[in-house]
Amino acid sequence: MMHFLRNIPIRTKVTAMIALASTGVLVLALAVVMTKDYLNLRGDQLDQLTTLARVVGGNSTAAVAFDDRDAAAESLRTLSTTLQVKYAFIWSKKDSSVMASFTRTGGPLEQDVAADLMRHATAPQELRTGEQDMYARVAIVLDGDEIGTLYVVSDLSRLYARIQEYVWIGLGVLGSAILVALLVSVLFGRAISRPLSNLSVAMRAIETEKQYSQRVKKSGDDEVGQLIDSFNAMLEQIELRDKKLRAHRNELEQQVQTRTQELVQTNASLWQAVSELEDAKTKAEAANKAKSEFLATVSHEVRTPLNGVLGTTEVLLNTDLSERQRRFGQIIHGSAKTLLSIINNILDFSKIEAGKIELEMVAFDARNIVEEVQDLFNEMAEKKGLRFGSHVAPHLPRRLTGDAGRLRQVLTNLVGNAIKFTEHGEVMVHIRPDEIGTDSMLLRVEVRDTGIGVPPESQRKIFESFAQADQSTTRRYGGTGLGLAIAKQLTTMMGGEIGVDSKAGEGSTFWFTVQLGITSEEAEDPKRQLLSGIRALVVDGTSSSREAFSAQLASLGISSRGIDGEDEALSLLQLAGRVGRRFDVAFIDPTGLHDVAWLIKEICNDAAITQTRIILLESRLATADEGAEDPFGDVERLLKPVRQSALYDCLSTTIHAKSAAVESAAPATPQAQSFSARILIAEDNPVNREVASEALRQLGCQVDSADDGQQAIAGWEATRYDVILMDCHMPNMDGIEAAKIIRVREATEGRPRTPILALTANARGEDYERCIAAGMDDYLTKPLTLDELRVALDRWVGRRAVPTEPTSDTGVEAEPPIAAADPPPADVTANGVEPMPNGASTLPETPATPPESPAAAAEPQDAKAATAAEPENAMTAAAPEPVAIADTAAAAVSGEPPVEIGDALDKTTIDYLKSLRRGDGPSVLERAVGMYLENAPTVLDEMRRAIAGGDASAVWRIAHSLKSSSASLGAKQLAQHIGDMEGRARQNDLVEADSRLVRIETEFQKVSSALRETLREEKEICRQTA
Amino acid sequence: MAVAAAMIAAPSMAAPAQEANEQLLKVAFIYNFAKFTTWPDSVFADPKAPITFCVVGKHEFGTAFDSVQGKSVGGRTVVVKYLSSYRSKDDCQLVYVAPSEKPHLPKILSTSKEIHALTVSDIDGFGESCGIIRMMRGSDDRIGFEINVKAAAESGLKLSSKLLSLAKRQVECSGS
Questions:
Q1: Pseudo-torsion of CA A916, A919, A922, A924, nearest 10°?
Q2: ipTM
Q3: What letter would DSSP give residue B76?
Q4: CB contacts < 8 Å between A and B, how many?
Q5: CB A562 within 8 A of CB A551
Q6: Which alpha helices (DSSP H) does A519-643 contain, by range?
Q7: DSSP single-letter state for residue A732
Q8: How far apart are CA A195 and CA A217, in angstroms?
Q9: H/E stretch holding A85
């Protein structure tokens, strides 16, 4: 509305304004006059009617009194002459009836009209006006008595006629007023709007023609005139500016032209420069590479003769030489060694420069590296009289992945430098996680020394190639100055930094960080779980070393009490023994104490605490004088600084003493054993079947196989087997069902009992219970290992292995602690315990375990799985949980922790499969991998379809089978992923099954490429050896 | 015709009731006459003095006059007296002369004139005998009356013009 108003022309606005104003005033005035007049007229008429009614009423008094109807009618008739009386009547009180009436039409009075009127008019003398009529009611009174009533009704037609008249007059006046207003507004409006519209037209013309030289003509001196003046002034300004702009533009165009030409020239010369530079860069890179390659080659070539020099010199020094000759020989040897290390550095450096170094990704424990480096430098530190130790943060994850060799190299370099530049005081290695995530972390390593320090101005330079703090240093200490440069390159490659904080003369702290992966927290080493139950006492006079050792124990999960005197130690030990919380082990550092021998004697003599194992912590220096008599007698010792692995091994024997639950089965002569048994293996998974069959053949068995329970029964009927290996989950008829049938038929048909061993993928107790309930004798957990099979066959076929060494009953090792590094081998039959054919293996108790030991309680499954054991025999073979046996077996085979092949495959398993070779035929690895790679994609397709179809039980079945064969080939991660899927599907849970499938498929891609690579290598080796 | 027949038949069928109504109506007329009449102030001893209706002679009203006994006329209470003969000392403001007293008419009228009493009667020629109001049944069978205005004026009474306008006719004294 407002928008519309704004857009209509001014003339119309003025016209409308005048018309609206005049109309408004007129209407208002008319309304007031009309209302006033109407009210007056109505009042007058009412007055007249009332007066008339009073007169007629008075005149009718006698007529009513004497009931003279004619006279009454006569008096009413007088009403006909005046006003618009429609009708009137007299109501007689005496008769309660209308005694006379009058109507203008002359007809009779309608009864209902009278009744209606009487009902309305209640009070005497009251006047009523209706919409159409006006009433008067007058009482007829005689001598104070009301004897009757007169009603008079008049219509208002005259009044309405009057109003109508007014309306017509009003409309007439209004019309003419609007006409006049229009006329006036047209005249005035033109006067206002014409100059404006003239101006508007002129402006539009200027706008379209862009003729700013035009001027608008002025018509008056009012506001519009001023507007026109301003507009003209503005036009002048615009004209002026236009001229200036035009001039400026011309100037600019010229400038641009000049500049463009300049740019074209510059561009051309730049292009030339760039191509020249590119050429130069290519040449320089080629030259640098050539130089590095040359260096690498030369270094390599130089090393060969140098090794010759070294070797020859060593031989020479062993011959009979004069003192002088020997000194010269030693100088030659020393110089050659220095030269070799320099050349090695140069070789490393040039390799890095040439980009020839690739980082490995292996799993390792950083603690081992620290200990190895410590071993390397212990002797040198001792020679210089330096304290040399390390501290590893307890929460540092155990399983890290990265290039352990390069990490060792950097640490070796820093520690070597520190010892080299420190004349007295100490060198400490600190290692801790800096930023720790779920699958990766930043490891921070610090090497602190109290050496000569690095002046601030050199602190950055020393990490540059061929630089040392100053040239005199080079002369005094030797070295190429390449070590730190290499360290810097290596840490950078490993995603970290290197640096130094130092004050000259006060020592320095060299530190570096590297990015390492954390392998998914493997199942906790059962030994570690057991270790956590050990109660240890640390007796050490020096609080710092006591605390450091306690921290070392804590990192193994062992809680310890520290104490600083012999008396206090003894009383604490005795107190603990009395309350039934005996300490399992007491570590005693004799250096700060006075009478350790007394303490040891007291402990041995107290029956309550004699069980406590005593371990002396001795420094290498103290043991140096071999000749002196050992004051402490035949006591276990650990060398300080104590290596974590040595401590671990040492404590493991304590666990053996406490519990029989953990045992690594590692027969002394694995390959020597042979069983001439006939064995039936019922297993539906072809990969597993193939692997197990081959393993059994390796053990000298004759093997038949069955795909399901029915085939197994058929095989059992046809042949007398020594042992049947039966998978629990099979199609058609599962192993449990088959075992039940076999047992029933053995009983009814009088056939000899065949041992049946269950094969299960789940180590859960319930499976075990079901198998035993079905009449099976024992169970093996998949994936099967050669050792497990050997142990099982040993037990059930009856061929005895040759026992290696009997072990101590008490578990206290009399040998030096180093010997404890090898876990004492043991075998169930070695201890003379005959296997019981049925169910005896469920004997869970191992009474040798002290009641307070948490170990037995912590591992009920182990306890349950433990085979029968004599109470006092602490060392018995057990069937531990699968992960444990895989790891320990692996350790036994390779002698080092399991190594993953590119994450996807477990190297131990692959090696094991490779080892299962029969004569000149293809290895089991080849066949198993072939089968797996052929079948798995189809199986995965089936799984995908089952997930899409929401068939949880099918998903479960497929996953179970695939998990089993994946685990057999060492694809642990894949097996774990599939296991997740299996577990969920078993509970009918297919939520997120799609994302799990994606994980499985991704992992499968890794696994299959790793397997192909393995196969390729295997074939290569076969070809070469053939 | 049917209406006329009914009207004729009605009195014969209910003669006693009709008779009583007729008497009541006549009393009402007499009472109303008083209302339209103005007496000289000297007639009443004081403003609160009652107004006395005297019924002279053997009348046929029975108890009809009881209906006006105690009512008021111009603020005065009506008192009805029954007189077998009429004497001047009787203080009457309105005198009804029963037909039985026709022989004593001149005497009654002259006495009345002296004491400013309004005279009413059913006697034929009452007005011509200088009586003031005579009631009679008119041609339309309704009760009507005739008035001798001159006689009223001679008695010192003022009759309302409204009453006069209702009179069937006005009469004057004949001869004596």
A1: -20
A2: 0.78
A3: E
A4: 27
A5: no
A6: 526-531, 543-555, 566-578, 596-605, 620-624
A7: S
A8: 9
A9: strand A85-92
Contact assignment for B160 to A62 by CB distance below 8 Å: yes
Considering only CA atoms, which of A547, A611, A603, A593 is closest in space to residue A572? A603
DSSP bridge partners of A401: A363, A517
- Pair A89, A102: CB distance under 8 Å: yes
Q: How far apart are CA A716 and CA A680, in angstroms?
A: 8
Q: Are A458 and A412 in contact (CB under 8 A)?
A: no
Write the DSSP assignment of B117-158 as a string of letters.
-EEEE--TTTTTTT-SEEEEE-TTSSEEEEE-HHHHHHTT-E
**Coil/strand/helix, residue A88:** strand
Q: Which residues of A touch B73 (CB under 8 A)?
A: 143
The DSSP annotation for A377-440 comes to HHHHHHHHT-EEEEEE-TTS-S-EEE-HHHHHHHHHHHHHHHHHH-SSSEEEEEEEEEEE-SSE
Average confidence (pLDDT) over A204-222: 77
Residues contacting A596, CB < 8 A, separation 6+ = A566, A588, A590, A616, A631, A632
Please name the residue that has the structure tokens 């008779």: B19
The one-character DSSP state at A205 is: H
Residue type, A755: P
Out of A256-265, A354-363, A697-706, A819-828, the most confident range is A256-265
Q: Which of B29, B73, B74 sits opposite A66 (nearest CB)?
A: B29
Most distant CA atoms of chain B, gap in Å: 56
Q: Which residues of A218-251 are buried (b: 16+ CB within 10 A; e: fewer)?
A: beeeeebeeebeebeeebeeeeeeeeeeeeeeee
Q: How far apart are CA A796 and CA A884, in angstroms?
A: 22
CA distance A897 to A337: 33
Range A79-86, long-range pairs (CB < 8 A, 24+ positions): A79/A52, A79/A152, A80/A104, A82/A48, A82/A52, A83/A45, A83/A48, A83/A49, A83/A52, A83/A154, A84/A154, A84/A155, A84/A156, A84/A157, A84/A158, A85/A49, A85/A52, A85/A152, A85/A153, A85/A154, A86/A133, A86/A153, A86/A154, A86/A155
**What letters, b where the CB count within 10 A reaches 16 and e where it falls short, cover B133-152?**
bbbeeeeeeebbbbbbbebb
- B31–A contact, CB cutoff 8 A: no
Q: Looking at residues A838-844, what average pLDDT do you find?
A: 38
Cα A629 from Cα A758, distance rounded (Å): 58
Q: Which of A137-141, A872-876, A915-919 has the highest mean pLDDT?
A: A137-141
Residue labelled with tokens 């020479």: A316
Which residue stretches of A798-923 are H helix? 854-858, 860-865, 882-894, 907-915
**Do residues A736 and A691 lie in contact, with contact meaning Cβ atoms separated by under 8 Å?**
no
> Helix A596-605 to helix A566-578 angle, to the nearest 10 degrees?
20
**Which portions of chain B are predicted below pLDDT 50?**
1-14
Contacts for B70 with CB less than 8 Å, ≥ 6 apart: B77, B78
DSSP 8-state class, residue A799: P
Contact A882, A872 (CB under 8 A): no
| Cα-based angle A409, A411, A414 (whole degrees, multiple of 5) | 110
pTM of the prediction? 0.34
Which residues of A are less than 8 Å from B166 in CB distance?
62-63, 66, 68, 71
Question: A61 to chain B: which residues are within 8 Å by CB?
Answer: 162
Q: How much is the pLDDT for A261?
A: 93
Q: Which pLDDT score, from 0 to 100, does residue A529 have?
A: 61
Phi first, then psi: what are they for A847, rounded to 5°?
A: -60, -20
Q: Give the DSSP letter of residue A868.
A: P
Of residues B32, B72, B165, nearest to A65 (C-beta)? B32
Alpha-carbon distance A442 to A447, whole Å? Answer: 17
Q: Tell me the average pLDDT across A797-806.
A: 44
Half-sphere exposure of A226 (CA within 13 A, CB side): 2
Residue positions counted in chain A: 1026
Contacts of A270 (CB under 8 A, 6+ apart): none
